[in-house]
Amino acid sequence: MLLLALAGVGVVAYANFTPVWRSRGRLFSDVKDLPETKVALVFGTTDRVNGRENLYFRYRIDAAVRVWKSGKIKTIIVSGDNRTQYYNEPEKMKQALTERGIPAGRIVCDFAGLSTLDSVVRAKEIFGTDSILVISQRFQNERAVYLAQAHGIEAYGFNARDVETRGGARTKIREVGARVKMWLDVNFLKTRPTHMGEKEELPN
């Protein structure tokens, strides 16, 4: 029983360390250091939580605007959940970005980004890009780079400001489980996106 418990702890620790190691030298917090990458991928989240502004959303939008203004990207994929007509993460992100001056024609909505894995794999298989700059908080960027590399995608990340609240602490705790799932998805389950569909062309 003790051996099983130790093995479980070992798997959790390994799964949580792997994306940190695999993303070394690929995550940036200063736009001056970013490599030029044609396509950025911004991960979705709701813009409000319990009636209050969601800082994860605001900081990701802020980060995407900074990268756009640096001239290092040409197209932005906003990828998230679109479960009902009243809940549409990609449209909310697109609206927020256009309000900050990014041309609507350079923003592409991925309405089937139900998970980080779904968003990353669909960027390649639906939108046809083999190289992406992921934009989110560091913890998600580390996981996204690992998933991208596992699926033959060249990936870098720009780290949005993190959230230092009780909600942020809960997110970090959930991330431990998310990394175990990531590791199992890639190495054992061979998980595929929930939805695929027809290929879509990105703006030239």
Description:
The chain has 204 residues and is an alpha/beta fold. The protein has a single domain (16-189), classed as Rossmann fold (3-Layer(aba) Sandwich). Helices cover 47% and strands 17% of the residues. Strand 7, helix 5 and strand 8 form a beta-alpha-beta unit. Helix 1 crosses helix 6 (166-189), helix 4 (116-125) packs across helix 5 and helix 5 packs parallel to helix 6 (166-189). The radius of gyration is 17 Å and the shape is globular.
Helicity level, as a percent range? 40-55%
Helical segment count: 6
User: Taking all residues together, what is the mean pLDDT?
Assistant: 95
What do we call the CATH homologous superfamily? HUPs
CATH fold call:
Rossmann fold
Number of E strands:
8
Please give the CATH class: Alpha Beta
Strand order of the largest sheet: 1-8-7-2-5-6
Instruction: Estimate nothing, just give the exact number of structural domains.
Output: 1
What fraction of residues sit in β-strands? 15-25%
Poorly predicted ranges: none
Give Rg in angstroms.
17 Å
Q: Do you know the CATH architecture? A: 3-Layer(aba) Sandwich
Globally, the shape reads: globular
Structural class: alpha/beta
Q: How far apart lie the N and C ends?
A: 58 Å
Q: Helices and strands in order, then pairings?
A:
Layout: H1 2-22, E1 27-28, E2 39-43, E3 48-49, E4 52-53, H2 55-70, E5 75-79, H3 89-99, E6 107-110, H4 116-125, E7 131-137, H5 138-150, E8 154-160, H6 166-189
Parallel strand pairs: 1-8, 2-5, 2-7, 5-6, 7-8
Antiparallel strand pairs: 3-4
Helix pairs in contact: 1-5, 1-6, 4-5, 5-6
Protein name: YdcF family protein
InterPro entries: Cell_Envelope_Assoc, DUF218
Pfam family, one: DUF218
